[in-house]
């Protein structure tokens, strides 16, 4: 049974959990401004001495997202609890592929992800050992372009640094790296994913052993599915990436994405 916390807030269940994985984009901010109610939740969790991780599928190192949150107005005590899918990818690439040549598929702003091994970056895919996908090229927004572009290179492994398919930036919807990775798999390519819903990002971000855990997020494919795969409890934020879908019959929506949801809230509030 799914419990609605929209009236009583997270405080109704907060003492039942030791650790909270809290999504950033779609919960803490919308890409443009902070959700002050969600920031207040972090303050209340701090008062209770609860552990939390601001766990996000962002194809950038922790430091980049911490800096961005600082510009939005989030204080350091909270923003330093960030862990990104990009950081997970970076740790893997630095250890497992440190001497291999790569091609970067994504916007130039994601440069910091591989700046420590930039000398291995190739201008042509055919010269690379593998592909780092952080998103779409700035100049090509049509997904069909990538199907044609990647077709000759399905023998190369792709490392996807953000499994999200789409994200809302304010009122605009944008494709993410996960959409490119999905196309690559459809044409026969192999993809290694970092981020939610895959287990490694939960394990590497904090010690969660023997703790009661609540995952909070607005994405059924990543936040909630990740909670399900880890056998954690989940809180689904309705006013996020799925807000344009029919939410009159939530059971059908959950069935569509093949997830179980413990709690729901319109937006994250205390």
CATH class of the largest domain: Alpha Beta
Q: What's the average pLDDT?
A: 94
Strand content: 15-25%
Distance between the termini: 21 Å
Reported for the largest beta sheet, the result is:
7 strands, parallel
Which structural class should the secondary elements be placed in? alpha/beta
Strand order of the largest sheet: 1-13-12-11-2-3-4
Low-confidence stretches: none
Total tally of structural domains: 2
Categorize the overall geometry.
globular
Provide structural commentary.
The protein has 270 residues and is an alpha/beta fold. It folds into 2 domains: 3-57 and 197-265, 3-Layer(aba) Sandwich (Rossmann fold); 87-193, Rossmann fold, CATH 3.40.50.1000. It is 30% helix and 19% strand. The protein is built from 9 helices and 13 strands. The protein has helices at residues 36-48, 62-72, 76-79, 85-96, 143-150, 177-186, 200-205, 220-229, 250-257; strands at 3-4, 19-22, 51-56, 82-84, 102-105, 130-133, 157-160, 166-169, 172-175, 191-193, 213-217, 233-237, 263-265. The chain has a 7-stranded parallel β-sheet, with helices on both faces. Strands 5-6-7-10 form a 4-stranded parallel β-sheet, covered by helices on one side. A hairpin with a 2-residue loop joins strand 8 (166-169) and strand 9 (172-175). The longest helix is centred in the N-terminal third of the chain and has 13 residues, at 36-48. 40% of the residues are buried. The mean pLDDT is 94.
């Amino acid at each position: 049974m799914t419990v609605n916390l929209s009236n009583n807030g997270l405080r109704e269940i907060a003492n039942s959990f030791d650790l909270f994985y809290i999504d950033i984009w779609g919960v803490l901010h919308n890409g443009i401004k902070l959700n002050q109610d969600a920031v207040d939740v972090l303050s209340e969790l701090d008062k209770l001495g609860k552990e939390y991780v601001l766990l996000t599928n962002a194809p950038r190192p922790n430091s980049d997202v911490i800096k961005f949150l600082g510009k939005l107005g989030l204080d350091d005590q909270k923003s330093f609890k960030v862990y990104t899918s990009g950081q997970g990818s970076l740790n893997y690439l630095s250890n497992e592929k440190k001497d291999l040549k790569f091609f970067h598929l994504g916007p130039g702003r994601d440069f910091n992800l591989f700046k420590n091994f930039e000398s291995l970056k190739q201008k042509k895919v055919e010269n690379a050992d593998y592909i780092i996908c952080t998103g779409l090229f700035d100049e090509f927004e049509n997904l069909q372009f990538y199907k044609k572009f990647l077709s000759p290179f399905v023998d190369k492994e792709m490392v996807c640094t953000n499994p999200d398919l789409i994200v809302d930036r304010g009122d605009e919807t944008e494709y993410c790296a996960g959409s490119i990775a999905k196309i690559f798999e459809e044409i026969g390519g192999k993809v290694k994913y970092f981020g939610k819903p895959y287990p490694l990002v939960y394990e590497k971000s904090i010690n969660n052993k023997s703790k009661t855990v609540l995952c909070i997020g607005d994405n059924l494919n990543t936040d909630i599915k990740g909670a399900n795969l880890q056998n954690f409890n989940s809180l689904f934020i309705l006013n996020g990436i799925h807000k344009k879908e029919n939410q009159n019959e939530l059971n059908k929506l959950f069935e569509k994405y093949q997830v179980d949801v413990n709690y729901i809230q319109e937006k994250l509030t205390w």
